[in-house]
Every structure is written in C-alpha cells, then in structure tokens.
Specification:
Blueprint: H1 6-12, E1 30-33, E2 36-42, H2 58-80, E3 86-97, H3 105-120, E4 127-133, E5 142-150
Parallel strand pairs: 3-4
Antiparallel strand pairs: 1-2, 2-5, 3-5
Helix pairs in contact: 2-3
Length: 152
C-alpha cells in the first residue's frame, strides 16, 4: 500500500467531493472508537425521492448509491483532513427504498462499492449487506451506512 494515495486517485478520477452534509436529526455525523470510524447513514445528494422498482430503475439506483458514497467520502475528508488516513473500508450496509417486487438491491449498492474500490484500491474491499426497506427517511431511494478503519 505504500505510495498509494486515495487523494491522488480522486484527482485522477476527476471527482470533486461535495461539502460534508450534516445529520438530519439529533445524532453525530460520525464517531471514532478504537480506530474505527462509524459514519451515520447518508443518502444521495440532491435528495431524490422515490422507490427502486417503482419510480427508479436499478441503473438509476446504482447512481444514487454512488452519490451516497460521495457524501460518505465528504464526511471522511472533513473529519480526517485527508482520505489517505483511511486504512481500509470495513463494512458497507445499504438500505434500499424499494417496491415489494424489487430484487436487485445488491446491484444498486454496487454503486457505492465500486466507488470505494475506485478510490481506495484494495483498501476499499469490504464486508457488505443490503436490505430492502418499506420506507426510509425523506423517501430517499437509498441510505448507506459505513464503517472504516482510520489512523487516529
């Protein structure tokens, strides 16, 4: 891993991170405990509303998951000063706001996973789970919940 820079990779990918969003209610944006950084759930920028399989396709959901991942990266950068302080992505959970017949939750969450792999390289490989939700806050199409190992 020596020499690899997630910050340089952002530049190579022409990714400009948004400003870190703030929590939607009374909770912390992130917590760091024993080298693990837990980032509160993030939805896609622009606050789209609707369900996968009803208002949105799997491909649109993939893009929403990627946007949610960018929101997570913005929190990491704001909190740590540099994405190079991320040792590894540990866990990604996706909560997909989907219709009852929707079955491609895993393909939607790939939008976030692919982003993290692109930015962090092999440090981006993570454990993962994805769930279909009857509803989520603000009727967002997806919320991503993440855990990272970071330099303290």
């Amino acid at each position: 891993m020596s020499g690899y820079s997630a910050e340089n990779r952002l530049t190579e990918l022409n990714i400009v991170l948004p400003e870190a969003s703030q929590p939607a209610a009374q909770y912390a944006n992130y917590i760091i405990v024993n080298g693990l950084m837990f980032v509160s759930g993030k939805g896609p920028s622009g606050h789209p509303k609707g369900k996968l399989g009803i208002e949105y396709t799997t491909e649109e959901g993939y893009e929403f998951a990627r946007l949610a991942g960018l929101e997570v990266l913005a929190v990491l950068k704001s909190a740590l000063g540099s994405l190079d302080k991320v040792i590894r992505v540990v866990k990604v959970q996706g909560f997909v706001n989907a219709g009852p017949e929707f079955e491609e939750h895993h393909k939607v969450l790939n939008g976030c996973t692919d982003l993290f792999l692109d930015v962090f390289g092999e440090r981006g490989s993570h454990a993962r789970s994805v769930f279909g939700a009857v509803s989520v806050r603000e009727n967002l199409p997806i919320i991503v919940d993440t855990i990272f190992q970071v330099e303290e």
